[in-house]
Recover the amino acids of this structure.
């Protein structure tokens, strides 16, 4: 997958010298810079004020930010909130947005970045179908929470009786989950590639028993397995971006990324020893983020279960499911 | 490419065979091979001037995937098709190409590989089979083991030492020879596997004469020639599809309510789907002439582990399939043949800059 080199340069330079903020505090200055470069509404159509790019460009951006351990509402603002507004035919602008699917009671748990959002785009089901609204945070109740990495995951409660929504197609609820899930798989793989680099650097520079850790075969194998799992997860997420989001392709990407996370996080901490578990060391900004993202938009078990269902209902045609012609 | 896959699937539906696990290793069926050859699906990447189909490596990749997924008996031509034909095209003389490639493409000439020895497993550079200069050729003496199909194949490619190891360069002084398995001095003995099957052999060479015209490539260049082909050998669909027929049967039996549902089924399908993308990426690199040793090693580590995990899952849920028995018996071999998992992790570590 290739993108415009000018855009790639922009994405690289805008994150240069940027690192994670403590405890998931939104880096407003960075967000404003991204916004002024047109990177916060990358896939929103140009006629709605976005940059009119595709998932291919969004994937590079999400990975670039994740590789630096940066927690930013890029997926929420553009790929979820911006997309929902476009689908609903509602206007959008440069205000930071997040998005969520509300339960019939008007609540949503663990909404990313709700406390920082200037608007919250909500999708909910009524007896007459699905509705979308661009909510003013002042009209909803936000209870703060965080994920494992300290990123905002807030509970939202809206008064649906007093909320007017625009009707949208019913498939958007499923698509919302698929889009959010793929965004997290892309972020996870971006962070995993940085974890791999950190491990290689540490193993080649840290000396024990008079030689670099990299000279010990068990350490080599721990890192080789990180590389293998990361490349598999990346291949699955890339295929989704290249060939389009389907329930199956997203499930494959999330299953691979989720299981890769197990090996990558465990082995990376093993290679780094006790120093990798400290607040001072940067490893946790990646490993905790990976685990936090794995918990968003469907658990690992749910994605494996989706694939299991697809396999057992394939009626003996498992290969045709995996390799359709 | 989808048309090609559909054609192969239609052919496989029309052909009678019992789907097997690991059929590229154990499924020797010369009639089936010749039938495939009539459809130009053997020696696909051999140029037309040598009797092949002149197709791309990616087209071969798609066809082999279909054959392996169906558990079709493709062992007879497997090594000739995968390894020997590309080696002849890369290093062979024009006479050698004309002599061997057309019968390979017709599904009439079968090959084996003579690399490992009793004292040389993972450490291939330590081979002791010797080739001594003789009038008009070479005399080969030594013992090769794990030579799959030697008792049925016509020839095998032997890696032998043509000059004694001198100094630190263990890779110098090795050469490759095309050896007719019917030559006087060749003795083939079965190595029976723990399941009672005979696929492997010990091949003893006692002063076997090989004419100069059957030297493959350049004398002393054997190591480079052998290792340059590893990308193909390690990244193909046979490194992740060996137990697919068992996975398909397990899924179908679960669907019929005969086996309990297990989420590893979904996990394994995800890994298979992703491995296909990874393997296809390596195939594309090789087609474009880009080196992909590390990527090929990644495919083989992940894929052969998955092949074993599929056998494990089927056993965990109590599958009653005869395929399971074969899969469990063959499983230790998955992560040994073609470079053990440990050797491959070393290759990956080198690619990452962790070791010299």
């Amino acid at each position: 997958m290739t993108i415009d080199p000018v855009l790639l340069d922009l994405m690289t330079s805008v994150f240069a010298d940027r690192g994670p903020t403590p405890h998931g505090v939104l880096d407003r200055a960075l967000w404003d810079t991204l916004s002024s470069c047109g990177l916060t509404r990358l896939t929103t159509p140009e006629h709605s004020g976005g940059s009119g790019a595709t998932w291919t460009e969004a994937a590079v951006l999400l990975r670039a930010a994740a590789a630096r351990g940066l927690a930013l509402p890029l997926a929420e603002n553009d790929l979820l909130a911006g997309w929902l507004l476009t689908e609903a035919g509602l206007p959008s602008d440069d205000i930071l947005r997040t998005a969520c699917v509300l339960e019939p009671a008007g609540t949503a748990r663990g909404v990313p970045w709700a406390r920082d959002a200037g608007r919250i785009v909500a999708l909910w089901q009524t007896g007459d179908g699905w509705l979308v609204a661009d909510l003013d945070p002042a009209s909803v109740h936000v209870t703060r929470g965080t994920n494992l990495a300290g990123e905002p995951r807030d509970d939202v409660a809206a008064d649906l009786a007093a909320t007017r929504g625009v009707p949208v197609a019913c498939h958007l609820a499923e698509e919302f989950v698929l889009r959010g899930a793929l965004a997290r798989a892309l972020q996870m793989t971006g962070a995993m590639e940085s974890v791999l680099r950190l491990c290689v650097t540490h193993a080649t520079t840290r000396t024990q028993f008079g030689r670099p850790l990299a000279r010990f075969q068990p350490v080599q194998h721990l890192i080789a397995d990180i590389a293998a799992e990361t490349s598999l997860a990346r291949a699955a997420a890339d295929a989704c971006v290249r060939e389009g989001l389907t329930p199956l392709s997203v499930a494959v990407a999330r299953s691979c990324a989720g299981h890769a996370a197990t090996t990558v996080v465990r082995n990376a901490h093993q290679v780094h020893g006790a120093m990798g578990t400290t607040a001072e060391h940067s490893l946790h900004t990646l490993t905790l983020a990976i685990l936090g993202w794995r918990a968003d938009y469907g658990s690992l078990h749910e994605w494996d279960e989706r694939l299991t269902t697809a396999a057992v209902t394939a009626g003996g045609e498992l290969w045709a499911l995996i390799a359709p012609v | 490419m989808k048309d090609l896959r559909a054609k192969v699937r239609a052919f496989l539906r029309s052909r009678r065979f019992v789907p097997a696990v690991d059929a590229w290793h154990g499924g020797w069926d010369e009639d089936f091979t010749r039938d495939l050859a009539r459809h130009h699906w053997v020696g696909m990447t051999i140029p037309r001037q040598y009797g092949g189909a002149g197709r791309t490596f990616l087209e071969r990749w798609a066809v082999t995937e279909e054959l392996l997924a169906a558990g079709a008996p493709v062992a007879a031509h497997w090594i000739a098709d995968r390894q020997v034909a590309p080696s002849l095209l890369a290093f062979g003389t024009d006479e050698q190409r004309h002599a061997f490639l057309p019968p390979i493409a017709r599904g009439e000439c079968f090959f084996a590989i003579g690399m490992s020895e009793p004292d040389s497993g993972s450490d291939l550079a330590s081979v002791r089979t010797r080739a001594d200069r003789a009038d008009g050729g070479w005399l080969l003496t030594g013992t090769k083991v794990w030579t799959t199909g030697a008792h049925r194949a016509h020839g095998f490619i032997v890696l032998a030492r043509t000059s004694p190891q001198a100094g630190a360069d263990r890779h110098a002084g090795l050469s490759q020879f095309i050896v007719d398995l019917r030559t006087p001095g060749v003795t083939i003995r079965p190595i029976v596997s723990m399941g009672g099957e005979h696929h492997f052999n010990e091949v003893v060479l006692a002063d076997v004469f090989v004419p100069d015209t059957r030297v493959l490539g350049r004398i002393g260049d054997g190591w480079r020639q052998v290792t340059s082909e590893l990308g193909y050998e390690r990244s193909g669909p046979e490194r992740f599809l060996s137990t697919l027929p068992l996975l398909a049967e397990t899924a179908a039996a679960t669907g019929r309510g005969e086996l309990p549902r297990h989420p590893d089924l979904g996990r394994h399908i995800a890994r298979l789907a992703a491995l296909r993308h990874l393997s296809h990426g390596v195939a594309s690199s090789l087609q474009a002439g880009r080196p992909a040793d590390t990527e090929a090693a990644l495919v083989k580590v992940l894929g052969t582990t998955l092949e074993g995990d599929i056998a494990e899952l089927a056993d965990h849920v109590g599958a009653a399939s005869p395929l399971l028995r074969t899969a469990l018996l063959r499983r230790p071999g998955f992560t040994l043949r073609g470079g053990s998992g440990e050797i491959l992790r070393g290759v990956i570590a080198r690619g990452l800059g962790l070791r010299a």
Q: What stands out?
A: DSSP finds ten helices and nine strands in chain A. Chain A has a mean pLDDT of 95. Residues 172-205 of chain A form the longest helix (34 residues). The two ends of chain A are 23 Å apart (CA to CA).
